[in-house]
Design goal:
By secondary structure, the chain is α/β, with parallel strands linked by helices. The protein has 11 helices and 10 strands. The strands form 2 sheets. A 6-stranded parallel beta sheet has the order 7-6-5-8-9-10. Strands 2-1-3-4 form a 4-stranded parallel beta sheet, sandwiched between helices. Helix 10 links the parallel strand 9 and strand 10. Helix 2 crosses helix 11 and helix 3 packs across helix 4. The longest helix is centred in the C-terminal third of the chain and has 19 residues. Bound molecules: N-carbamoyl-L-aspartate (NCD).
């Protein structure tokens, strides 16, 4: 699959044959071709991951540290699988069992990881900006696996790859509606940066208390009425209520929330007939999404859920990011 903005020879813009950033801390500010470069690089790994033998030893001899200061299932597992499929030595650090619990500062933890000569560090942290702070201190590429409510770049990329596989390479003219706890969601922010950069129209829908005050600065169309937001949507992306980031009452009750903002089969019918349903997980079934929508194989008009495809694409995207960001370490063309 090729991207629309490559030149006729299938190359990227002159002088930009390699990804020019040392770390991946966010998608804000990336050029369209930089995002497409990572999506295109992931395609080979989608293929490999579907084979019985899923191993490529490109990163043999490199050490990758996954430092997770917050809970995770699919992101941690997929980064671990990605590193191992590329032949790297992968080590996981769980904050709950680390010296963080003994009062060590984030910088001291970062310097410790750095002293072990990691070749890439993958970090998830509850504070927005923590990953950039570490990226500025260490010598190797740093990949953001989610920092507070700031960004979750590999999620944005895997979602774009999922959309591209389902809907084709042309993002311009596509309408994507993201509904849920926009205020606290790093997934929403990375998807907004990614999809608007690629030319899609992005609608965001949330109750007033869960909509960021400055949302229009992100070049999206805000809605409080989910039924209105759904009209003409090619993709409907649902988000979990981020209770862990809420201090106080943001919604009346889960029942009331489902009534206004839950994706039911009836509501999905308001989107385009062949709409794609997405959710980054973990899902709260019966709150933001009903089970018969989350598990929708394909209805008569072509609407379907891509939630398990998102997980599949997640491994491929993380393989691409680890490969691309370690190219310079491996003596190949990479960040300057
Ligand atoms: C998301 C996250 O951690 O931001 N999960 C994920 O990485 N797939 C979304 C969430 O927790 O709701």
């Amino acid at each position: 699959m090729t991207s629309p903005n490559l030149d006729a020879a299938g190359r990227y813009p002159a002088g930009s044959a390699a990804f020019p950033h040392r770390s991946l801390t966010g998608l804000a500010g990336l050029a369209p071709w930089e995002i497409l470069f990572l999506l295109d690089e992931a395609e080979q790994w989608v293929e490999l991951n579907r084979q019985p033998h899923k191993r490529n030893d490109r990163l043999a001899g490199l050490t990758i540290i996954n430092a997770f200061f917050e809970n995770s299932t699919r992101t941690l597992l997929s980064f671990e699988i990605a590193g191992k499929r590329l032949g790297a030595d992968v080590v996981n650090m769980h904050a709950a069992q680390s010296s963080v619990k003994k009062g060590e500062t984030l910088i001291d933890t970062a310097m410790t990881l750095n002293a072990m000569h990691a070749d890439a560090i993958v970090i998830r942290h509850q504070s927005s900006g923590a990953v950039q702070l570490i990226a500025d201190k260490v010598d190797c590429p740093v990949l953001n696996a989610g920092d507070g409510q700031h960004e979750h770049p590999t999620q944005g990329l895997l979602d774009a790859l999922t959309i591209r596989h389902a809907k084709g390479a042309e993002f311009a003219g596509m309408r994507v509606t993201i509904c849920g706890d926009i205020l606290h969601s790093r997934v929403a922010r990375s998807n907004i940066h990614c999809l608007t950069t690629l030319g899609a129209e992005v609608r965001v829908c949330a109750p007033p208390a869960l909509m960021p005050a400055d949302i229009e600065a992100l070049k999206v169309h805000p809605f409080h009425d989910f039924d209105a937001a759904l009209v003409g949507s090619d993709v409907v992306m649902m988000l979990r209520l981020q209770q862990e980031r809420m201090s106080g009452q943001f919604i009346p009750s889960p029942r009331e929330y489902r009534h206004l903002y839950g994706l039911t089969l009836d509501r999905l019918a308001k989107a385009k007939g062949d709409a794609l349903v997405m959710h980054p997980g973990p899902m709260n079934r019966g709150v933001e999404i009903d089970s018969n929508v989350a598990d929708l194989a394909q209805n008569a008009s072509g609407a379907r859920s891509a939630i398990t495809t998102q997980v599949e694409m997640g491994v491929a995207i993380r393989m691409a990011c680890l490969d691309v960001l370690t190219r310079r370490t491996r003596g190949l063309e990479g960040w300057a």
